[in-house]
């Protein structure tokens, strides 16, 4: 049995310890805001916050998550009131929206460390893939949210 904390609640998963965190979150905890895109660590759709780091949850097992603190998009803010969520909604930043939970979690980790990131710092931190190509709007939104 694997134990850790998800969105401030203790969880125990009776699953194969080598299960990717992504599938435990989605299938066992019904936290379906965390998306599956590639399963190979490339797209970032599955990004969650683990102990203050943006982590691609398809690339970490629940064994590796033991004892750690995980935050998913469902707990980024209690009322969708995080500055990033407010700016993304006000400025219609997203298009199809599929990648946005992972983008938001990655950007939130960036802004916690650096509330005034440069274009270069944003590009270095946000390596998430967006098939709609929202990148130009994304930079401006992250700066405003910061
Ligand atoms: Fe994890 Fe693409 S689904 S990086």
TrEMBL record:
Domain of life: Bacteria
Domain 2Fe-2S ferredoxin-type: 1-76
Coiled coil: none
Record carries keyword Iron-sulfur: yes
Keywords: 2Fe-2S, Iron, Iron-sulfur, Metal-binding, Oxidoreductase
Protein known as: (2Fe-2S)-binding protein
Keyword Iron appears in the UniProt entry: yes
Provenance organism: Sphingobium agri
Range covered out of full length: 1 to 146 of 178
């Amino acid at each position: 049995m694997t134990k850790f904390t998800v969105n401030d609640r203790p969880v125990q998963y009776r699953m194969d310890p080598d299960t990717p965190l992504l599938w435990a979150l989605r299938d066992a905890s019904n936290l379906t805001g965390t998306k599956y895109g590639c399963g190979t660590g490339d797209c970032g759709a599955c990004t969650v916050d683990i102990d203050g780091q943006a982590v691609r949850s398809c690339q970490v097992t629940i064994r590796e998550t033991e004892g750690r603190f995980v935050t998913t998009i469902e707990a980024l803010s209690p009322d969708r009131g995080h500055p990033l969520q407010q700016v993304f909604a006000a400025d219609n930043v997203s298009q199809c929206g599929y990648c946005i939970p992972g983008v938001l979690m990655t950007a939130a980790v960036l802004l916690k460390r650096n509330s005034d990131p440069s274009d270069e710092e944003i590009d270095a931190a946000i390596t998430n893939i967006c098939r709609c190509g929202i990148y130009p709007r994304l930079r401006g939104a992250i700066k405003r949210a910061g």
